[in-house]
Amino acid sequence: MPPLPSTSAPRRALFTGALLPFLLPAYVAAADSSMNQLTTYAAPAGIPANTNFTVKVRSPGGEWLELFCYAVEVDMHQPRTAALAIFDFSGEVEVAVTNRRGPVASARIRPLSYALTPGIAGDTLHFKLTQPRNLSIEVNGDIFENLHLFAGPIDTERPDPQSPDVLYFGPGVHSPGPSLAIPSGKTVYLAGGAVLKTKLVCDRVENVRILGRGILYHPERGIEVTRSRNVSIDGITIVNPRHYTVHGGQSQALTITNLKSFSSHGWSDGIDLMSCSGVLVDGVFLRNSDDCIAIYGHRWTYFGDARDITVRNSTLWADVAHPVNIGTHGNPARPEVIENLHFSNLDILNHDEPQIGYQGCFAINASDANLVRNVRVENVRIEDFEQGQLVSLRVAFNRSYATAPGRGIEKVHFKNITYNGARAGISILAGYDETRPIDGVTFENLRINGRLIRTADEARFFVGEHVRNLEFSVTQ
User: Same domain for 206 and 128?
Assistant: First the structure.
């Protein structure tokens, strides 16, 4: 590998942005005859940097470009500062990461399913990418003061800044107030290098888009989508909201793609959906200090069933609580159904929950008169985690958050789930009573540490009372 340039090498920019909206993004773009493209974004002045790493990227044989490393807080249990760097590319890109804290004795790039093995030379590791990836780069075993590197696709969705239907935030820091209400029919665009300090609110609206490569920074809550229809969120990063990253309440046709999120406070969940239907979550990276994905019925002022929800091609990292949690909140006065949920092609990087009642990489805890049914989970890779269970399937009465037990769990199919590690506790499957059972759960090709599982005992699953038609099958 050729020697790296000095970290003080100047950056070239095609556009320069001020601290005002309605400007084209400040970025460095490079291309070559092989159609490789590379775009990096300058960070605005005054945003705290993480100086633990120097990160540089280039198209093969091209000029090295240094990325800004944002400081992001992770892990409510013991808050620490990790690093975040963002760029876009197509074709092929070379990456060099220098650990400014000393020599690199070991390094890994996660998710491990990507099979990216870096070369190491002294204090620097290097590797290539040929497709967009959201990565955790961990030096000397450190998963908390690590580098998150988000290598996205080239942004082709930049709207016209002068359009009356566009709220355009160019590079720089923008502080429009504690919240910003988005009207129907509007596009909100956060250009690369834009840092927006506010909560975005979509309430009783339709046909709204929120997109770009910029950052929502330390809001009270990231994005609220309540009683709305046809809202899409794409490409942005949300850094350390005090509450949820995305709060969906009684909304339909919600699409969330390529969203990245960090949180480190109590109840700072990733994506929480309450009485929502027709939702697609695709290609997200969520590192949260509470549930990454939560699906409920009624809560607060939102009512109705939750159904037809898909989560796919994503990476979930729960520093606290569950990567996926289903069923806690509902409406005993008018019981609701949570149904037709599909989870596929997921990597789970951590799960750390000391309270047994809140464990489970996949938790279906039907409470509050909810009936949960028709759930499919397939092609999920669970890496070793700090503490918790692989699954928790319980019809329960969570008296802290509910006023009645759940009505049941029906027709749940887990297929091609793998876990490699030694820290998983005993998973729990338990109904509530004869009228509130678990009925029809299948584990197809469950693989633990390379071994295909054929029985609950082999999986270290505790099967309690009122569990019917539990099946383990091997079809590989």
Answer: no
CA atoms of 116 and 134, how far apart (whole Å): 12
Verify that 274 and 346 share a domain, yes or no.
yes
HSE of 193 in the Cβ direction (CA atoms, 13 Å)? 26
Q: Is residue 223 part of a domain?
A: yes
Q: Three-class SS of residue 361?
A: coil
Nearest to 443 by CA among 372, 390, 397: 390
Tell me, yes or no, whether 146 and 174 share the same domain: no
- pLDDT bin (cut points 50, 70, 90) of residue 26 is low
Domain that holds residue 269: 166-473
Q: Which amino acid is at 242?
A: R
* Tokens found for residue 352: 């750390």
Query: Is 11 inside a domain boundary?
Result: no
H or E stretch including 459? helix 456-459
Closest among 85, 81, 94, 68 to 142, alpha carbons compared: 81
For the question of whether the overall pTM of this predicted structure is more than 0.90, the answer is: yes
Domain harbouring 233, CATH code: 2.160.20.10
> In this structure, is residue 17 part of a structural domain?
no
In tens, the pLDDT along 97-156 reads: 999 999 999 999 999 999 999 999 999 999 999 999 999 999 999 999 999 999 999 999
End-to-end CA distance of the chain: 41
- CA distances for 89 relative to 28, 32, 92, 95, angstroms: 11, 12, 7, 12
Residue 323 preceded by cis peptide, ω within 30: no
Residue 356 sits at φ, ψ, to 5 deg, of -60, -35
pLDDT of residue 11: 30
Residues 115 and 248 in one domain: no
pLDDT at residue number 93? 98
Shared domain check, 210 and 104 = no
Assess whether 128 and 277 both reside in one domain.
no
3-state SS assignment for residue 405: strand
**115-122 own/partner pairs: CB under 8 Å, 24+ apart:** 119/1, 121/1
Number of domains in the chain: 2
Q: Quick one: DSSP state of residue 114?
A: G
Domain boundary among 153, 174, 200: 153
Supply the CATH number for residue 40's domain. Answer: 2.60.350.10
β pairing state of 362-366 and 391-395: parallel
Rounded Cα distance between 362 and 325, Å, is: 6
